[in-house]
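Hi support team,

I'm filing this because I wasn't sure whether my run with 5-O-phosphono-D-xylulose finished correctly. The job status page said complete, but I'd like someone to confirm that the output block is well-formed before I use it downstream. Pasting the exact inputs I used:
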Amino acid sequence: MPAQRVVIGVDSSTQSTKALAVDVGTGAVLGEGRAAHSVSAGPGRESDPEQWWRAFCEATAATGWADRATACSIAGQQHGLVTLDPAGRPVRPALLWNDVRSAPQAAALAAALGPAELARRTGSVPTAAFTAAKWAWLRAHEPAAADRVAAVRLPHDFLTERLTGEPVTDRGDASGTGWWGPGGYDRELLARIGLDSALLPEVLAPGSRAGLVRAGTPLREGVPVATGTGDNMAAAIGLGLPPGRPVLSLGTSGTVYAVGRTRPADPNGTVAGFADALGGWLPLACTLNCTLAVDRFAALAGRDREDVEGGGTVVVLPYLDGERTPDLPAASGLVHGLRHDTTPGQLLQAAYDGAAHALLTALDDVLRAGGEDPAAAGEPLLLIGGGAAGRAWQQTVLRLSGRAVQVPEARELVALGAAAQAAALLTGERADAVARRWRTTDGRVLDPVPRDDDTLERITGTLRRARALQEAPPQERQEGRGR
Ligand SMILES: Nc1ncnc2c1ncn2[C@@H]1O[C@H](COP(=O)(O)OP(=O)(O)O)[C@@H](O)[C@H]1O
Ligand SMILES: O=C(CO)[C@@H](O)[C@H](O)COP(=O)(O)O
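And here is everything the job wrote out:
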């Protein structure tokens, strides 16, 4: 009987690292590990990259397969700015995707080059999330730290380099920097923000081997490591996603995306024109306020997160961290339409509705950006991420999308996508073909219900009328005092 081949896939996301040991032949998950991260509170959102490495070691060891796995791949939260000194140590904590202090730098880039030109060159009009805006923020606010930087990495590149010693990345995660386009790094844009391209990793071709595990890690020395990618690109692989099939991911961030048939370039900035990790495209819209914001409203209302009630007139814009979709980095949470008879359960349901509204109203734009007709009847919307397990989330998405919704039984689709990348190194298949073979989308399909347009319109109307409250005053926008 041939020996069982097992690979390890890792998801280094905002709140934690999750590692899965997966059987290459069947896709069976043989072991799991998890280790929590801490993220700073206050005006910014930062994490120590050393903590991610420790979490990687702990989570992979906890799978029980670290010393026997035959390949590995690491996916990670997108966009984060990791700055390293010549010894490979962090110069300062990483600036994360949901740190909105860099909003003025993003706006300055868009003003200087024009949104349409930026979308044409990089696929996206950068918001505060993009690494280019973060580097410009660092240059403006901590020039001494910026001068000490010998290497700039994304979270997954940082971990892959710790594991292999190789300074490499992939096109999916590179497409979230704001300084990469199909022709490679955009040197004119890099010069504009004062970043030397020599500090950046090499962008490997899809399906490449990043390197071999070096000595002194929990994994077996010499085992091949795949390129890895950004977490959303990894989930797309993990789902074996065909073009046009929409996905809604409910985690720290909310994301909605589909593999595109054409290269996206939305000059309005709602849709980020990411590359996927396989040579195609991944148009995506992302919110900053998803499961954590809704859980905060549950705590404020003194309710369990499933304890929701319909009816009433209350509207919640749950933009506790500022927001990216819509692009309102200085926004805060807003409750409107409270009455004497509003119940805590209705307030909580309104928080779910407000969080889902931002994603579902972007879905048609995402599909259009990838060359799809949103009106064409499609496959059920795939619901993934930590929130997908919640009944209140499932019912909210059903009601506000008007679509059938499929909830895969597999829980950690980012880590599974990374595992599929690792398996593909061994078998020579495409990574998404591996995931399809593993039947990772299998799960319950929830029948569609008529779309609740009244609620969607009430939220859209409140958002329109509250706009002045949610935007930073012009002077603060320029000075970066957006929060
Ligand atoms: N059953 C559930 N219902 C609703 N939310 C849930 C449930 N289980 C986990 N969550 C939420 O999922 C989030 C974690 O999701 P995950 O996709 O792992 O996040 P991330 O990848 O951003 O770190 C937590 O904020 C938690 O509140
Ligand atoms: O910024 C984005 C997508 O553009 C986020 O989706 C991050 O990639 C972080 O994701 P999670 O922590 O929610 O997994």
